[in-house]
Every structure is written in C-alpha cells, then in structure tokens.
C-alpha cells in the first residue's frame, strides 16, 4: 500500500473575533436578562474569543457548507486550478445546514471547479472531522485516490441565539415557573464557535516544505456502556434514552427547545476524560508506540477545566506528557467542534516551528455518547 501524507492545511473563520464582553450582543439576552451561568462557564473554560457566522443584528454571513468550501479553496491559494485535481471530498460536521442533502454534497456545490468527484459525509460530533480524515487517509493509502481533501466545519451560532429559547421561556412564564433556560442548555452557549479547517492528503510528501505522514488513526466508542451526554434534536428521558424530535408536536418542539444543543454536565465531568484516555494506553501498546517519543500533544478540549484532568489520567496510566509538549488554541478560537483539531494542526503546521522527524499525537474526545479518535503524525 501507499503511504498517506497531509501536504497542506488551511482554515477559514467568519468575520471578526468576538470577545467575551461582546457575546450577548451577538447571542442576545434570554427573557431580556443576562445569563446567570455565563461568568462561571467562561471562568472555567478560559476562552477569550470565538467566531460567529452572523452579525450582531442576527443576519447570517455564511452557511456551514460555504465556510467549509472556503477552507478547501484556501488549500490552493496560488493556483485555484488545482481544485480540478481533487478526486475525493470527505466532510465532517455536527451542525449541517440541513438534514438532507448531505453536508458533503452541499460543500461540493460551492466548488463547481472540482468536477464530478466522490463525496462522503461522516456524521457525528467532534469525532466527525477525524472520521472524515480517516476515510481520506484510507482512500489514499489504498491508492484508490490521489488527491483527497478532508474538511471539518461547524456553524453552531444560530442554535445559540436567544430567540431559539423564547418560546420555552414564555411557556415557563405561563406555567408560573422560573423563566430561565436550564443549565444544560445555557452551558454550551459560552463555549461554541463557528469555522472550518481542511487537509489535503496525498500519496507523496511535498518536494519542498514540511508534510505530515499519517502513521495511524484509531478510535473507540463507549456507547454500548454509556447513555448520551450531548444531544440536539432530542429530549433526554428519565431512563437516559433519547426521544426524537420526530415524536414531538411542532408546539412541543418550540416549548421545550428541542433543537437547542444540550449537555449533561454531570455525566460529562464524570466520564469524558477517564473513558477515552484510559483506552489510549491500550491503543499505544497495540501500535507499539512510546509516549516519550511525542513532541507535540494536541488534545481537543472544550474547556481548560479538563486539562488537569487529562494530565492526571495520563500520569495514572504511565504515559505522562510534559506540559511544554501540549498545544491547544481553545482560548483564541473557541470550541469549533469537529473543526477544532484541524485548526490546531493548521496553526502548528504553518508556524514554521516543526522539524523533520517530530511526532504529533492528536486526541479528540467526543462527549455526545463518548467516542474518541487518536492519530499519530510524523513531520517529514
């Protein structure tokens, strides 16, 4: 089989960075009041800025598919004719613009220069971007494709705006209950960000400049053991099962904010770090890889609150990583879900700091029902 290399990396973010102090100017005030949880969540996640694909007035500026297409175009800044050479588009997201058609073909619609190519759209949440990468990696490694593009993108912001919760708040007022949305819905409003990242994967490294050889990509799911932790378009019942939006009336969908993104924060804190990073030890043993050989450790985290938790679990498993090897840009980019790991790789790839032979370990936990993806890259 061929080898597979990431030869180019790009990102696209919409508009200007939004600082913490401006967030509610974009997201709005639920029931006309500032969020009670905002300060607490921001203090823990330590995010300083993020990006939204709409204006303060609520006017959309980009679709998810459009942002993804812009990231793909930026892989070829000096020669857009190279778009014609792409033979696979593999696209991951957890926030598509529509249920159907697929997210991937909608991106393809923004890239008419590519011609007729294979398109695939792995679903999921944070791991969706890694699944997209793995499909592209395997296609090149099997010599089925020569120039594959993996892209990951998110457009969470419309689901975070105050008007999404207005019907629920009014229903609470009618029932003479506290007109504040629950913490599981408010929690993610202060963490999520919009944007896209893209990789070009080829069977040969760049003739000049660095490339990243994909050594392996491995993952695991604990959905057979654990209930859903983060969900959208569903209602979590007392027994832990999810009731689909399809089984609610239109009125119930609005009154319960069924299409808001929800997070079971207690379950998140208990499970997200231990499950995946305990399993990392088994994956490394299976691959015969020594954690001491890692030069850069890129963990996708939704909050800096989890940084010390990951550090503790790695130490417990005998695979510690010194903090000087860690890299994340969560503070400046926010949590861009499936695209976060692409944006971290983009920043470090284009930093000019990488040296031949260095090893980069990617770690992507997904809290939706506890899935994890890990990837080892070698600078060449």
Automatic annotation (TrEMBL):
Domain Beta-ketoacyl-[acyl-carrier-protein] synthase III C-terminal: 284-363
Alphabetized SUPFAM superfamilies for the sequence: Thiolase-like (SSF53901)
UniProt-listed Pfam families: ACP_syn_III_C (PF08541)
Keyword Hydrolase among record annotations: no
A GO BP entry: secondary metabolite biosynthetic process
GO MF annotations, alphabetized: acyltransferase activity
Keyword Acyltransferase on entry: yes
Alphabetized UniProt keyword annotations: Acyltransferase, Transferase
Designated name of the protein: 3-oxoacyl-[acyl-carrier-protein] synthase-3
Species: Dyadobacter koreensis
């Amino acid at each position: 089989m061929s080898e597979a290399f990431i030869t180019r990396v790009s990102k696209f973010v919409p508009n200007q960075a939004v600082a913490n102090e401006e967030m509610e100017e974009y997201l709005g005030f639920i029931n006309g009041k500032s969020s009670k949880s905002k300060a607490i969540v921001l203090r823990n996640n330590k995010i300083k800025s993020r990006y939204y694909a709409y204006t303060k007035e609520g006017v959309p500026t980009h679709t998810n598919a459009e942002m993804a297409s812009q990231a793909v175009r930026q892989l070829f800044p000096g020669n857009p004719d190279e778009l014609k050479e792409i033979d696979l588009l593999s696209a991951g997201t957890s926030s598509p613009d529509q249920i159907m058609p697929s997210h991937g073909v909608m991106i393809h619609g923004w890239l008419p220069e590519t011609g007729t190519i294979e398109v695939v759209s792995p679903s999921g949440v944070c791991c969706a971007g890694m699944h997209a990468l793995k499909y592209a990696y395997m296609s090149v490694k099997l010599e089925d494709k020569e120039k594959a593009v993996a892209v990951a993108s998110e457009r969470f912001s419309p689901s975070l705006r105050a008007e999404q919760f207005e019907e629920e708040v009014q229903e609470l007022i009618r029932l003479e209950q506290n007109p504040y949305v629950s913490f599981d819905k408010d929690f993610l409003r202060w963490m999520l960000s919009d944007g896209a990242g893209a990789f070009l994967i080829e069977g040969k490294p760049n003739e000049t400049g660095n490339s990243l050889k994909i050594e392996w990509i491995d993952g695991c799911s604990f959905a057979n053991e654990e209930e859903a932790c983060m969900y959208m378009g569903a209602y979590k019942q007392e027994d832990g099962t999810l009731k689909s939006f399809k089984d609610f009336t239109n009125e119930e969908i609005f009154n319960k904010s069924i299409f808001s993104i929800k997070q079971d924060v207690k379950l998140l804190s208990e499970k997200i770090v231990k499950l995946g990073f305990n399993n990392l030890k088994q994956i490394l043993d299976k691959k015969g890889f020594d954690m001491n050989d890692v030069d850069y450790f890129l963990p996708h985290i939704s909050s800096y609150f989890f940084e010390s938790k990951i550090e503790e679990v790695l130490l417990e498993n005998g695979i510690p990583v010194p903090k000087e090897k860690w890299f994340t840009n969560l503070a400046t980019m926010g949590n861009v879900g499936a695209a976060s790991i692409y944006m971290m790789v983009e920043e470090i790839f284009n930093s000019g700091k990488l040296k031949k032979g260095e090893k980069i370990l990617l770690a992507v936990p997904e809290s939706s029902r506890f899935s994890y993806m890990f990837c080892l890259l070698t600078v060449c």
